[in-house]
Recover the amino acids of this structure.
C-alpha cells in the first residue's frame, strides 16, 4: 500500500468521519485527460495495487463484489491491442481499427469487468456498483497525479473482443480506465447547470 495512505482499517474498526476540503477542491476542478495525450510514465505496480484497493471501497449492496480487474500494461497491453486490430481488419472495419488509438497510446490501463451475481440484490444495483468502481479508480489515479480517462468502445461490447480479453459470456466491460502522464493539460469543457437538473420533492 502507498506510503501516503493510512494503514488499511481492520474489519469492524471505527472509522473517523471528518471534513476534507482538499477532496472538495479536487472534485471542483477534476477533468479527465484525453487518452491520446497520455504518455509515460504510468502508475507503478505498487501504485496500481493501491488504486485497485481504493476502488474496491465503493458502495456494494450485499457485499457481493460484482466486479473484477484486468491490468493492461507493457507487452500484454500491446498484444491485446494487436489482437483487437486483427479482429477489426478481418472484418474489413478500418474505422474500428482506427479507434484503437485510445487504447494503444496510454502506457497503462485497467479493465473493470462487471460480473453480476444471481442474488436478491437487483442486477441494476450491481451494475451501478461497477460504475462506482470505474469512477473511484479514475479519481484515485488523478489524485495520485496521473492523467486518466474512462472509456468504452466497440471492443467493450463486441463478443469476440470480450473473449480475447478473457471474459465469460455473462461478464461485461464496465470500462477501460486508461492512465499515464498527460503531455498537455486537459481543458475545461461545458458543464451542465445543476439547478436545471434539480428538484425538491414536496408532498
Amino acid at each position: 500500500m502507498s506510503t501516503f495512505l493510512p494503514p488499511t482499517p481492520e474489519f469492524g474498526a471505527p472509522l473517523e468521519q471528518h471534513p476534507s476540503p482538499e477532496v472538495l477542491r479536487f472534485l471542483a476542478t477534476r477533468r479527465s485527460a484525453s487518452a491520446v495525450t497520455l504518455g509515460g510514465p504510468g502508475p507503478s505496480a505498487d501504485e496500481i495495487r493501491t488504486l485497485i484497493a481504493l476502488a474496491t471501497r465503493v458502495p456494494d449492496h450485499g457485499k457481493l463484489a460484482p466486479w473484477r480487474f484486468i491490468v493492461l500494461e507493457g507487452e500484454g497491453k500491446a498484444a491485446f491491442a494487436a489482437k483487437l486490430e486483427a479482429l477489426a481488419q478481418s472484418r474489413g472495419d478500418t474505422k474500428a481499427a482506427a479507434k484503437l488509438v485510445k487504447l494503444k497510446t496510454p502506457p497503462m490501463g485497467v479493465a473493470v469487468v462487471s460480473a453480476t451475481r444471481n442474488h436478491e440484490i437487483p442486477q441494476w444495483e450491481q451494475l451501478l456498483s461497477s460504475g462506482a468502481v470505474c469512477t473511484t479508480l479514475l479519481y484515485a489515479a488523478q489524485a495520485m497525479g496521473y492523467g486518466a480517462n474512462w472509456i468504452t468502445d466497440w471492443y467493450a461490447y463486441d463478443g469476440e473482443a470480450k473473449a480475447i480479453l478473457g471474459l465469460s459470456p455473462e461478464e461485461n466491460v464496465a470500462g477501460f480506465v486508461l492512465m499515464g502522464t498527460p503531455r498537455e493539460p486537459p481543458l475545461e469543457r461545458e458543464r451542465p447547470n445543476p439547478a436545471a437538473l434539480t428538484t425538491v420533492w414536496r408532498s
Summary: The mean pLDDT is 96.
